[in-house]
Amino acid sequence: MKKIISMVLVVCLVFSIAMLTSCGGEKSSSANGLSGSIKADGSTALQPLLTKAVAPFKTKYNFSGSVTINGGGSGTGLTDVMSGAVDIGNSDVTPEEAGKPGEGLVDHQVCVVAVGLAVSNNVYEKIKSITSEDLTAIFNGTKTNWNQITGWTGGSLPIQVFYRKSGSGTRKLFEKYGSQVTLTDTQISKFPNFTKKESSGDLESAIVSTPAGVGAIGYETLPYCKSLKLLALNGVACEYKNVYTNDYLIWGYEHMYTKGTPNKTVHTFIDYVMSEEFAPTIIENGYGAISEMKITRK
Fold it and tell me: Which residue among 48, 105, 107, 113 is least packed, with the fewest CB closer than 10 Å?
């Protein structure tokens, strides 16, 4: 009798383990066909959004592989995805706009991002909007004091300009749709009131900590502008309702580039970032929805 009971217990135990394994397997990486790892780098503007996607993506698909999201700038992302160093190259601009080869790259447009005209608090107290002409004059080094700027209500205050390094997608967008001034780092280095910053976070910190004796201006994507004051451009505020209608001009698409068709794991991650499930996170973190755009750019 004891042998029969023991055999029954063993059978029940084996059945229970099999059931648990089966239930868990429905959510495992192998059952979903997801394996390996995901590596991306590039745009520091897009980096924080993709970083937020990692945890819910791994939970949803019970993915145990690594997902690495690095920065480096849009130029780095495009170069690395072309060479095969990463699975995804993130960029604020197209390869053509970045002056990079793009043969064989597949573009996955995730969202839009606006570039704000960020200024230090002492500047915002004296001016709320800037004209395109004055913006150009500041960034080509012609105007170096805020009292030369139309609409300025204060006294003499030297202009401190912060700009992003060469290869930055944010810089490309700003130069093309904002300042309309394209200079090399060597040319810019001749302007004593210009200071280069390596990343979005660095530029944000520099403007926040600007000394009282100067008035800072720089350009930054909206996800990094939560603690910054933004000037309107020609009276149009840097808000997504104005981006959607193209009334505010300094904006671009956020791209996730892959070399050819990505493998299932990488494709699933990109699909998740572009899904309705993740859409609220995009809006909450300072990006705009492509579906809301009333115009398109090539």
Answer: 107
